[in-house]
Design a protein that fits this description.
With 152 residues, the chain is of the alpha+beta class. It has a domain at 10-97: SH3 type barrels (Roll). Helices cover 36% and strands 31% of the residues. A 5-stranded antiparallel sheet has the order 4-3-2-1-5, with no helix packed on it. It starts with 9 loop residues before the first helix and ends with a helix.
Length: 152
């Protein structure tokens, strides 16, 4: 006689091979109304896995939503997690990828600076580039005219 204590398949979760650097899709059960559940996916990069495969094991998933970084810490054996799919594997040299937080914000700031310098939207950028080319042409033409006058 087998007694089932938890609704989670503990053996499957224990053998789940998720590592920092993996991109995973975590299907989470969310309670809508009384007794009604729906599944919602949260896809992102695993920054850390803590406490191995023991009862209190957790993993941290980070995702950028609408330009804002969102991190969720999931308990490995939580009954509110339906399944965890590994979308992509990446080779990393660190056990914890917390530096990604600063790296992403730095890149976002750099992008923002670039758009401010260039003028904003890609259409505006192409207009500015065309104007700059025209200015260069105009600047080089008078020099040619001056040289012709000198030769005469």
């Amino acid at each position: 006689m087998v007694m089932k204590i938890s609704p989670v398949d503990i053996k499957a979760r224990k053998t789940l091979d998720i590592r920092p650097g993996d991109t995973v899709r975590v299907w989470q059960k969310i309670e809508e109304e009384k007794g009604k559940h729906r599944l919602q996916a949260f896809e992102g990069l695993i920054l850390a896995r803590k406490h191995g495969t023991e009862a209190g094991a957790t993993f941290t998933v980070r995702r950028v939503l609408s330009g804002v970084g969102v991190e969720k810490i999931f308990p490995l054996y939580s009954p509110m997690i339906d399944k965890v799919e590994i979308v992509k594997r990446s080779r990393v040299r660190r056990a914890k990828l917390y530096y990604i937080r600063e790296k992403v914000s730095r890149e976002a700031r750099r992008q923002l600076r670039r758009t401010r310098i260039m003028g904003g939207t890609p259409k505006e950028e192409s207009k500015l580039e065309a104007e700059a080319e025209a200015d260069v042409r105009e600047a080089s033409e008078p020099a040619a005219v001056v040289e012709e006058m000198k030769t005469e």
